[in-house]
Structure formats: structure tokens, C-alpha cells
Amino acid sequence: MTASEPDNFDEMHMPDGSVREAYQGYNDWLEQQDEGWMRRKAFEAESFFRKTGITFNVYGEDDAEERLIPFDQVPRIITGAEWRRLSKGIEQRVRALNAFMHDLYHRQEIIRSGRLPERLFRDNAAWLPQMVGFTPPGGVYTHIVGIDLVRTGPDEFMVLEDNARTPSGVSYMLENRETMMAMFPELFSKVKVSDVSDYPRKLAKSLAACAPECVEGNPSIAVLTPGIYNSAYYEHAFLADQMGAELVEGSDLRVIDGKVHMRTTVGFRPVDVIYRRVDDDFLDPLTFNPTSVLGIPGVMDVYRSGNVTIANAPGTGVADDKAIYSFMPDIVEFYTGEKPLLPNVETFRCADPDALKYVLDNLSELVVKEVHGSGGYGMLIGPTASKKEIAEFRHKLENRPENYIAQPTLALSTCPIFTKKGLAPRHVDLRPFVLCSPEGVSITPGGLTRVALKKGSLVVNSSQGGGTKDSWVLED
Question: May I ask which residue range the UniProt record assigns to the signal sequence (predicted)?
Fold first, then answer.
């Protein structure tokens, strides 16, 4: 039995301690298991991850060695009915994001209408003038999207942020499921869970559908990685292997006769689709950062001529901007003609004087984030911050208010984790992964659940001490 934290929605247990419908099958199985055996399984999972090499790097630390992402063996479970409602909202949002990207690089109707301030992209480093007037093959900008969701009640899911540039974490979603099935095969015969193992096949198919029109036969797909020292290199190699695609670095590719070619043991051969995990600034030293050794000289010219597909499209990082996020309800309504099915978290734009005054007056109660921040860095969680940290953030806000947004501290839902003393509630979020192509939108059932392993913590990022769980969507 696990107790809920005050004012938080416990996804497994009702306030009276009874088990919710989603977890009933799992709980029936769990009650029959020996606690010592479950504890040994936790060590088994860690050993599996270590042998498989499921690691990540933390930048900016003196001891930035590879680390294991902690894995918790209690799944996060969502009913089929809940997932269907979520999927509709996710698809609506992703379609709006893609339409927004096209508009922003063409007629900018949303700015002409007055729904979005011009300054949000004019002064935005993620907005690329090189993309103006160009439409990617198939009209798709956001090929792979990760929508971060938080839950605050039985039917209350909210979008915390959008990841439309290079969303990561899908390899952990897949490995978490494989680990659970290896450790508890009999559990999956008792509880029917939607499959996620076909994600790499769907990713390859979706990328192939976005190949340039000039391509004949099966498109050649390559995963472009910055190299082995990148924090997500394991994922790059994993996805390339699972898709049957080539894993390449910039030095493996060359522009020849107006097309991108890959070096092989038998010479150079064309590449039609590049799933890049390299940031825009390093993608082409002839167009962006001239000192970059990670990209492909001349690739943007090939791209704009329609002879290669880059996924995700350069310039999609605008959608990751947290100031842009605050306008997403307007963006969804503008491009779909519908009210958003998934609400945003209330957001105060510190560039607005009235909002800034409110934030400065209530710093100890708010979460403050950098507009371009990620990974849990550069943020203030007011209720747990020291007086010194609050004073430092006050100074930052007064000096560069346009660089920050603020949000109320949410009562995030909790899911149980397995501890030495049994089950205990911890805060979670959810990142479903979405694939977009001219053939439509595909959402993998579940996604990556990240969990704050420290009691009371709201920070779920692996770089900040968080872990992951297997995410289950129940079949009807």
C-alpha cells in the first residue's frame, strides 16, 4: 500500500487507499509476488541496462562520465479510454505546430492577424531566415515530436512543453518495455498492454514517406549524430540499428553533383533522408556556424533544391521556445479553428511589464524558466528555493525579463516507485512520441514516463536525478 502526497492526484490509489481501475490487474499480480524477489529484480534491471549500454552523459560536470538512467520497475498505467482522449489532443496540437511552422516561413498570417507578436520570432535565434519561402518535401516540418504532458487530476492532462526540434528519449521507452517483458513475462499475459516495439519500423516508414519526389525506389535513410561524446549517442546508434538505417557523422557525408552522398567501403552512394540529431547551428558550416565540424558543408543548398530531406526541418526550434509555447492555445485555434483539447499550463510572459511585476512579487510560489532552456537547467522552483537563489533570479529577471517565463507550481500527479520500504509515490510526467508524414500522424501508445526519484521533488529530468518507467496503455 502507498500513501498519496497531500493535494496530489495518485494515479494508482484512490484517497481511501483502494486501487484505481487502470492498476487493478497489475495490483492483483503484485500482491502475489514476494517482496525480496521484487527487490532482486530491481538489481537485475540495473545489470541489464549496464550490459546493454543504456547510458547518458551530463554536460558541464567535472566527472561527466557516462551514467545509467535509473529505471523503476513499477509501470505507469493509462486506460485505453484515457489514451484515446489524449491522442486526439496530441494530434490536434502537432498538426497545428506543423501549420504554424509553414506559416511562419511563408505568409506569416498569424502575425498579420495580431494573434502573435512579431518580436517573438524577429529576435529569436531559432528562427532561420534561410528557411523563408521554402517548403520541405511532403510539406512536413515536424517529423518527430515529443509533447511533454503533466497530470493534475482524473481527467486533467496539461501540456508542459513542446519538443519539435530533436526530441529525445524514445530509445528509453523501447528499452524500458523490453526490460519489463524480460523480467516479468507472465505479467504481460495477465495484463494486456498496447505494443510499442514497432516504433522503429513506423519511424523508418514515416521518414521514407517524406523523401524528395525525385527519389525512385526505396529511399536511403541516415541518422546524423554529433558522435560518441554526445549525451544521446546511445539513442542515435540504437535507432539507426533498429531502423536498418546508416549511422553517420558529418565527416561521412559529402555533397556531390547537387546531392548528399555517404562514404562506404565501395565508394560514395546517395542519401535521401537525413534524420539529424545535430542542432541547426552546426548543420552546415557554409550556412550557419563556420567553425562547425559536425555538419555537412553545402547541405542546406541541397535541401533547398529539393534533393534531400532533413528531419526535423531546420528552424523548427522556434516551436520549443517557451514564450511561443505561451501562445499555443491561440496557435491551435488559429490553424485548426478549434479550441485546444489539451490546455497549456498558465504562463506569465516576463517580457510583459504587468506579468513581470506579478512574478517578482510572487517568486517564492512560482516556477521560472529560461525561454530557451531545457533539461531542467536554468530554472527556479520557488517553493523549494533558498533566499539566495530567489534573490539571484530576481536580479536575472530585472536585467533580462524577455528571457524568462513563469508558471504556477503544479500539483503533479504521482505514481508509485519500488523502494526498500515498499511502494512510495513520486511525481511523474509523460512524453508521447508523434510521427508526422504526408500519410498522416502516428502516436505511439504511452511514451516515456520520467519520474522524480527524490521524495517531494518536481524535477524529473535524468540530468537532475530523475529516472524512467515503462508506460502502459491498456488494451480494451
Answer: none
